[in-house]
From TrEMBL:
Keywords: Amino-acid transport, ATP-binding, Nucleotide-binding, Transport. This is Branched-chain amino acid transport system ATP-binding protein. PROSITE patterns: ABC_TRANSPORTER_2. Residues 2-230 form the ABC transporter domain. One of its GO terms (molecular function) is ATP hydrolysis activity. Belongs to the ABC transporter superfamily. It holds the Pfam family ABC_tran. The keyword Isomerase does not apply. Gene3D superfamilies: P-loop containing nucleotide triphosphate hydrolases. The keyword Disulfide bond does not apply. One of its GO terms (biological process) is L-amino acid transport.
């Protein structure tokens, strides 16, 4: 599905990613764990074409993404929820979820089909669809950002530290939502970054440890607990 090999990224002359490589497979949730500054956000931004890279390759189903500018990647089926996943306050929840589809000039029929799928996977969004983006809580806002990313995630869903700033009860609720999504949408690969692995142990099919811009180790399949179906 998505394969990253020997990715190197420099920011302001500093090697931020030294050697990042991993593969994501359809139906699998991969968790990338690393402390602040390890390179998680940089990895996701590089995959999204938001940062140039010095060396390495990123392929989705065999297509090399390196030469493609960011906008050309939009059609490749990668959904992305950035670390700073603010909603547009004056748009309703539904309008916020629709933004990526509008940017991609999807047909109305396609938008509706995808929106319906998002609502069926994340029913709590249907309940708050008419509320203004500025009027939802922090925890709800993260679910909206998840739905927004799902709109384009035909193949890969990238979630950058979705638990950051959530109180423990809300983080647990988010983890349950993610587990539900993972068990009900098996045709995509999910990558979630996190600074502490605890909450995601239950949904991780594989764990990657990133340290100083390098993937340190891969969990062996024997270490990985199965998905706890929520
Ligand atoms: N725009 C930037 N300018 C300078 N350094 C940056 C910039 N963005 C990230 N870095 C550096 O790159 C490293 C990796 O950052 P990041 O990918 O944000 O880590 P993480 O998401 O794991 O916390 C850090 O050392 C950070 O200081
Ligand atoms: Mg980060």
């Amino acid at each position: 599905m998505l394969t990253v090999r020997n990715l190197k990224v420099e920011i302001a002359g500093v090697e931020v990613l030294r050697d990042v490589g991993f593969s994501l497979a359809a139906g699998k949730a991969t968790v990338m764990v690393g402390r602040n500054g390890a390179g998680k956000t940089t990895t996701l931004r590089a995959i999204m074409g938001l940062l140039p890279w010095k060396a390495g390759s990123v392929r989705i189903d065999g297509t090399e993404l390196g030469p493609l500018p960011g906008h050309a990647r939009a059609g490749l089926g990668i959904g992305y929820a950035p670390e700073d996943r603010r909603l547009i306050a004056d748009f309703t929840v539904e309008e916020n979820i629709l933004v990526p589809a509008l940017v991609r000039r999807m047909s109305a029929a396609e938008r509706t089909r995808r929106l319906d799928e998002v609502y069926s996977l994340l029913p709590q969004l249907a309940v708050m669809r008419a509320r203004p983006g500025g009027g939802v809580s922090g925890g709800q806002g993260k679910i909206v950002a998840l739905g927004r990313a799902l709109m384009l995630a035909d193949k890969v869903l990238l979630l950058d530290e979705p638990f950051q700033g959530l109180a423990p009860a809300l983080a647990l609720e988010y983890a349950r939502t993610l587990a539900h999504l993972h068990s009900n949408k098996r045709d995509i690969a999910i990558l979630v970054t996190e600074s502490s692995p605890k909450l995601l142990n239950s949904i991780a099919d594989a764990t990657l440890h990133i340290e100083r811009g390098e993937i340190e180790s891969l969990a062996s399949p024997g270490d990985v607990g199965g998905l706890q179906h929520a």
